[in-house]
Amino acid sequence: MNNNIFPCLWYDEDAKESAEFYCKIFDGKVTADTPVVMNIELFGQKLMLLNGGPQFKKNASVSFMVICETENEVQNYWDQLSDGGLVLMPLDSYSWSKKYGWVQDKYGVTWQIFLGEKASDQKIIPTLMFIHQNNGKAIEAMELYTKTFPNSRIGNILRYGDGSEGHPAPEPPENIQHAHFEIDGYSLFCMDNSYDHQFDFNEAISMVVMTDNQEQTDLYWNALTADGGRESMCGWLKDKFGFSWQIVPKRLIQLMSDSDQEKAQKVVQAMMKMQKISIEDLEKAYHS
């Protein structure tokens, strides 16, 4: 499994509490514990929890599908995640799963608990919902992402018009009801949705991509900011669909974690001024 690509969840001071909550539910472990960043591992998958402040609120435009093997497993996760949370679709039997429910937990993270077959060895799969001006663009997004990253592919695609069982009336038949794709071996799902939700993609849930060198950093940055994407600060960007990515050279993490506090601090200060991360400029700051 590729742990160079992982989701980042934005918190307002409750990242640690949330990290402990998920580790308890999914039998995970905390791998980094700092005031700003908590890293956790659930089923061998990395998630980053960031105490970023009150600016961004997590919402259901990005949810996490948990693929379960037994009804008991579904029930167990459901009971804990729905405690103090908000049920978006009740736990029930649906055409696509004998036992399924969609819930927003008390920390604002949205989970789809699903009894079914795994499409890969990944148990938790981020699911992107293309809504409003992006509705109908799930296929275009999958094409962009799989073209940008190596070892990528588009897997099964279910369109609303296919067999139309449980087909919601307003959805155009060619739109994606559910699709699986992989970027550099990391699985994601996506869907189109015509409903006028009161939310959309924002910085509260982003994908982090750790890069090996400047060439890779530039390649991903340029591909994802093209055609109406937007550069932001500190390695953050938004692609043309408004979805947020963090393109982070591994060298940045090494330099920032240097035992020489003063040098590490210089690197952080240099990074804070950058949009796309320049490894050469980080090295200069480190040696200054």
TrEMBL record:
Signal peptide: none
Gene Ontology molecular function, alphabetical: methyltransferase activity
Pfam families: 3-dmu-9_3-mt (PF06983)
PhnB-like domain segment(s): 4-113, 122-248
Domain of life of the source: Bacteria
Alphabetical keyword list: Methyltransferase, Transferase, Ubiquinone
GO process terms (BP): methylation
Protein name, entry field: Glyoxalase superfamily enzyme, possibly 3-demethylubiquinone-9 3-methyltransferase
